[in-house]
Write the C-alpha coordinates for this entry.
Amino acid sequence: MNIRSALIMIGIASLAMPAFGNDQTLKSEEIRVGSMVLAIDAALKSPEKKESLETIARYGTDTRHYVMIRGWLSELLKGTESQLAATTDPELKAKHQQKADFLKKAIRRIDLE
Protein backbone atom coordinates (compact mmCIF):
# COMPACT_ATOMS: atom_id res chain seq x y z
CA MET A 1 0.00 0.00 0.00
CA ASN A 2 1.44 3.35 -0.93
CA ILE A 3 1.07 6.66 0.86
CA ARG A 4 -1.76 7.74 -1.43
CA SER A 5 -3.80 4.64 -0.60
CA ALA A 6 -3.17 5.13 3.11
CA LEU A 7 -4.32 8.74 2.94
CA ILE A 8 -7.46 7.71 1.04
CA MET A 9 -8.22 5.11 3.72
CA ILE A 10 -7.76 7.74 6.40
CA GLY A 11 -10.09 10.07 4.55
CA ILE A 12 -12.76 7.41 4.29
CA ALA A 13 -12.36 6.51 7.95
CA SER A 14 -12.64 10.15 8.97
CA LEU A 15 -15.98 10.41 7.15
CA ALA A 16 -17.32 7.57 9.26
CA MET A 17 -16.23 9.20 12.51
CA PRO A 18 -18.72 11.30 14.46
CA ALA A 19 -18.51 15.03 13.81
CA PHE A 20 -16.11 16.97 15.98
CA GLY A 21 -17.10 20.05 17.92
CA ASN A 22 -15.80 22.47 15.31
CA ASP A 23 -13.80 22.73 12.11
CA GLN A 24 -10.61 23.65 13.94
CA THR A 25 -10.66 20.40 15.92
CA LEU A 26 -11.27 18.42 12.73
CA LYS A 27 -8.40 20.13 10.92
CA SER A 28 -6.14 19.49 13.87
CA GLU A 29 -7.03 15.79 13.82
CA GLU A 30 -6.44 15.59 10.06
CA ILE A 31 -3.02 17.17 10.48
CA ARG A 32 -2.13 14.79 13.31
CA VAL A 33 -3.15 11.70 11.34
CA GLY A 34 -1.46 12.95 8.17
CA SER A 35 1.75 13.56 10.11
CA MET A 36 1.52 10.04 11.52
CA VAL A 37 1.16 8.51 8.05
CA LEU A 38 4.13 10.50 6.74
CA ALA A 39 6.27 9.50 9.73
CA ILE A 40 5.45 5.82 9.25
CA ASP A 41 6.13 6.05 5.52
CA ALA A 42 9.54 7.61 6.24
CA ALA A 43 10.28 4.86 8.78
CA LEU A 44 9.40 2.18 6.25
CA LYS A 45 11.82 3.73 3.77
CA SER A 46 14.68 3.61 6.30
CA PRO A 47 14.43 0.23 8.06
CA GLU A 48 18.13 0.31 8.96
CA LYS A 49 17.59 3.20 11.40
CA LYS A 50 16.78 2.22 14.97
CA GLU A 51 14.26 5.03 15.32
CA SER A 52 12.25 3.61 12.39
CA LEU A 53 11.04 0.67 14.46
CA GLU A 54 10.33 2.98 17.39
CA THR A 55 8.25 5.29 15.20
CA ILE A 56 6.13 2.41 13.93
CA ALA A 57 5.74 1.02 17.46
CA ARG A 58 4.71 4.42 18.84
CA TYR A 59 1.90 4.86 16.33
CA GLY A 60 1.07 1.18 15.87
CA THR A 61 0.31 0.63 19.55
CA ASP A 62 -2.23 3.46 19.56
CA THR A 63 -5.53 1.56 19.59
CA ARG A 64 -7.15 4.19 17.36
CA HIS A 65 -4.78 3.32 14.52
CA TYR A 66 -3.58 -0.22 15.25
CA VAL A 67 -5.79 -1.97 12.67
CA MET A 68 -4.91 0.45 9.87
CA ILE A 69 -1.16 0.30 10.57
CA ARG A 70 -1.15 -3.48 11.07
CA GLY A 71 -2.98 -3.92 7.77
CA TRP A 72 -0.58 -1.56 6.02
CA LEU A 73 2.44 -3.49 7.31
CA SER A 74 0.86 -6.86 6.47
CA GLU A 75 0.14 -5.84 2.88
CA LEU A 76 3.69 -4.52 2.46
CA LEU A 77 5.01 -7.79 3.84
CA LYS A 78 2.95 -9.84 1.37
CA GLY A 79 4.26 -7.77 -1.53
CA THR A 80 7.84 -7.95 -0.30
CA GLU A 81 7.67 -11.71 0.18
CA SER A 82 6.24 -12.06 -3.34
CA GLN A 83 9.13 -10.03 -4.75
CA LEU A 84 11.59 -12.06 -2.68
CA ALA A 85 10.23 -15.33 -4.08
CA ALA A 86 10.24 -14.04 -7.66
CA THR A 87 13.76 -12.66 -7.88
CA THR A 88 16.92 -14.57 -8.63
CA ASP A 89 19.26 -11.59 -8.29
CA PRO A 90 21.25 -12.04 -5.04
CA GLU A 91 21.37 -8.28 -4.36
CA LEU A 92 17.61 -7.90 -4.75
CA LYS A 93 17.04 -11.02 -2.65
CA ALA A 94 19.12 -9.51 0.16
CA LYS A 95 17.27 -6.18 -0.11
CA HIS A 96 13.84 -7.84 -0.06
CA GLN A 97 14.87 -10.15 2.80
CA GLN A 98 16.00 -7.16 4.88
CA LYS A 99 12.69 -5.41 4.26
CA ALA A 100 10.66 -8.55 5.06
CA ASP A 101 12.61 -9.07 8.29
CA PHE A 102 11.99 -5.46 9.31
CA LEU A 103 8.27 -5.69 8.56
CA LYS A 104 7.94 -8.93 10.54
CA LYS A 105 9.75 -7.32 13.46
CA ALA A 106 7.50 -4.23 13.28
CA ILE A 107 4.33 -6.35 13.18
CA ARG A 108 5.52 -8.44 16.15
CA ARG A 109 6.36 -5.28 18.05
CA ILE A 110 2.93 -3.71 17.68
CA ASP A 111 1.14 -7.02 18.26
CA LEU A 112 2.94 -7.65 21.54
CA GLU A 113 2.38 -4.26 23.11
Observations:
- The chain has a mean pLDDT of 87.
- The first helix runs from residue 3 to 16.
- The chain is about 80% helix and 0% strand.
- The helical segments are 3-16, 23-45, 50-60, 66-86, 90-112.
